[in-house]
Design a protein that fits this description.
211 residues; mainly alpha; Tetracycline Repressor, domain 2; Homeodomain-like_sf; transcription cis-regulatory region binding; DNA-binding; DNA-binding transcription factor activity
Length: 211
């Protein structure tokens, strides 16, 4: 991973250059900054997060952080996209039902389990009050959930879904149900939540939408 010395507007391109001959200090600094940012988000929330605190926690000079990212929102956006702790695995169970259940369990774990749960809740809550942060959050979910498209291509190839199925609509229905239950209602899903949600979505997905 490489990062420009000037802070990019889009955190997806926020990749520090390797400094020196064969040095990987840029990527190492970026990883330290991202880890510190996410840890502080989990501990204190978005409103109390500061670049200065990230600098203290990561051991990277704050002028370097400001050079790479011009705002707190841009830094958080880069950390969301750049940290591996927020990756979503693509399930491959051999069936659409199994894959969707695996995907929903992964989303629920992202929202509820340490170390990602407190980060996700803090960011999602703060995004309702910050259009800048909301844009970065949308970019994060578009990137992560967009990686799930092969799951639906396999389902179409197996004859489990019509070829004209909108895969992102199915993702929105499942991930949205998880978000509403965990973040908006502050409820813990019961043991049958995943199976019931997947069954409901599949029943609708296999129906033909009237012309």
């Amino acid at each position: 991973m490489t990062i420009d010395t000037d802070a990019p507007e889009n955190p997806r391109s926020a990749r520090p250059d390797k400094s020196g001959s064969g040095s990987a200090s840029g990527p190492r600094k970026a990883a330290a900054i991202f880890n510190a940012t996410l840890d502080l988000l989990a501990e204190s929330g978005y409103e109390r997060l500061t670049i200065e605190a990230v600098a203290d926690r990561s051991g990277v000079n704050k002028t370097t952080i400001y050079r790479w990212w011009k705002s707190k929102g841009a830094l958080v956006g880069a950390a969301l996209l750049g940290s591996r702790r927020l990756d979503l695995a693509v399930p491959d169970t051999g069936s659409l039902r199994g894959d969707l259940a695996g995907l929903l369990r992964t989303v629920l774990a992202l929202l509820t389990e340490a170390p990602t749960g407190p980060v996700a809740v803090a960011v999602l809550g703060a995004a309702t009050h910050s259009e800048e942060l909301a844009g970065y959050v949308r970019g994060f979910f578009a990137d992560r959930l967009g990686r799930e498209r092969p799951l639906f291509a396999r389902a179409v190839a197996r004859g489990e879904l019509p070829a004209d199925t909108d895969p992102m609509l199915l993702v929105d229905l499942l991930a949205g149900a998880a978000w509403l239950r965990v973040v908006f209602r502050a409820e813990q899903p019961d043991a049958d939540f995943v199976d019931r949600a997947v069954h409901t979505v599949l029943h609708g997905a296999r129906s033909r939408y009237p012309d």
